[in-house]
Amino acid sequence: MRGEKTFSFFLLLFFILISQTTATNYPINVWPKPTTFHWPNPKSIFLSSNFTISHPYHRYLTPAVDRYRHLILSEHHRPIITPAINLTSSIPLQSLIISVSDVTSPLAHGVNESYSLSTPSGGSSAYITAGTVWGAMRGLETFSQLVYGNPTRVAAGVYIHDLPIFTHRGVVLDTSRNFYGVDHLLRLIKAMSMNKLNVFHWHITDSHSFPLVIPSEPKLAGKGAYSNEMMYSPADVQKIVQYGMEHGVRVLPEIDMPGNQNL
After folding, report:
1. Which of 28, 101, 102, 162 is most buried (most C-beta within 10 Å)?
2. Are 176 and 230 in contact (CB under 8 A)?
3. Percent of the chain with pLDDT over 70
4. Distance between CA atoms of 173 and 184, rounded to whole angstroms?
5. Please, which residues bridge with residue 134 across strands?
6. How far is C-alpha 127 from the chain's CA centre?
7. Which contacts qualify for 77-80: CB closer than 8 Å, 24 or more apart?
C-alpha cells in the first residue's frame, strides 16, 4: 500500500513538472491546444466594424462563414480576466481571407482537417489556409477564440498550425433509452463544433423505444416511441444532419433492428 502511494505521488509530481516545462502561458489561449501556437510578442489590434471574410463558395462552408462572422461582430466576448495586451496599430483588421486546396473532399473518416492561421501585427488581413473546407471550419473556430472585447479586438502577430491527433473525435448519445428533442441535439452539435469534435454517434433506436418515424412503416414509431411527442420525423433528421455538416460534425446514425414491438 505504501509503495502504491509513493508511486502515485511521484507520478503526480512528474505530470506537474511536465506541464510546467511544456506549457506556455499566453494572454489568450486556444482550445483545444493547437499543434503550433507562435505568438512571440503578444499584442492586439482592433477589428473593423466592416470586417469581412472571403472564402471559396461551398454548400457547408458558406453558412459556417456567415455564422462565424456574425458571432465575431456581435458577441463582444469579455474574458473573466481581461488580457493585458497593448494595441499594436491604429489600423483595424479589415478582413480574413480563407484559402482551401480541395473543396470537394467529403466529411469522411480520415479527412484532412489541418489548417494554418496567421494574424497581422499591423496589416489589414488575416489568413487561413486549409487542405479542405473542414479544416477551414476548425480555423474559423480558432480565429473566433482570438477575438474579444468591446470595441472588438483580435490577437495580433499570431501564427497557428493545427491538425487533430485523432481522426475520430466523437460523442455518442442514446435517444432510445432517453429521448432528447431536436433543439437539444442541435445544441450538442454546436458544442461539439466549438471543441473541434467531428462525429455525432446517434444511437437512435433500441429495444427500449423506436422514436424514428419511417413513413413506409409508421407503426414502428407509432407503437414503439414513448409518446407521440417523442419522435423524430424525416424532416427532423434532415435538419440535424444538415446542421451537423454546417458545423463540421458528421452524424453517424445507429438504428437497431426492432424487437418485441407488438405490431
Report:
1. 162
2. no
3. 89
4. 11
5. none
6. 19
7. 77/147, 77/148, 77/149, 78/148, 78/149, 78/150, 79/28, 79/148
**Is cis: bond before 151, omega within 30 of 0?**
yes
Amino acid sitting at position 44: S
**pLDDT tops 60 at residue 18:** no
Burial 175-212 (b: 16+ CB within 10 A, else e): bbeebbeeeebeebbeebbeebbbbbebbbbbeebbbb
The whole-number pLDDT of residue 263 equals 44
pLDDT-based confidence at residue 217 (cuts at 50, 70, 90)? very high
Residue 120 CA from chain centroid, whole number: 24
Domain 27-162: give its CATH architecture.
Answer: 2-Layer Sandwich (3.30)
Band (pLDDT 50/70/90 cuts) for residue 5 is low
pLDDT score of 120 more than 90? yes
**H, E, C per residue of the chain:** CHHHHHHHHHHHHHHHHHHHHHCCCCCCCCCCCCCEEECCCCEEEEEEEEEEEECCCCCCHHHHHHHHHHHHHHCCCCCCCCCCCCECCCCCEEEEEEEEEECCCCCCCCCCCCEEEECCCCCCEEEEEEEEHHHHHHHHHHHHHCEECCCCEEEECCEEEECCCCCCCEEEEECCCCCCCHHHHHHHHHHHHHCCCCEEEEEEECCCCCCECCCCCHHHHHHHCCCCCCCECHHHHHHHHHHHHHCCCEEEEEECCCCCCCC
- In whole angstroms, what is the distance from residue 238 CA to residue 104 CA? 21
- Range(s) of the chain covered by CATH 3.30.750: 170-255
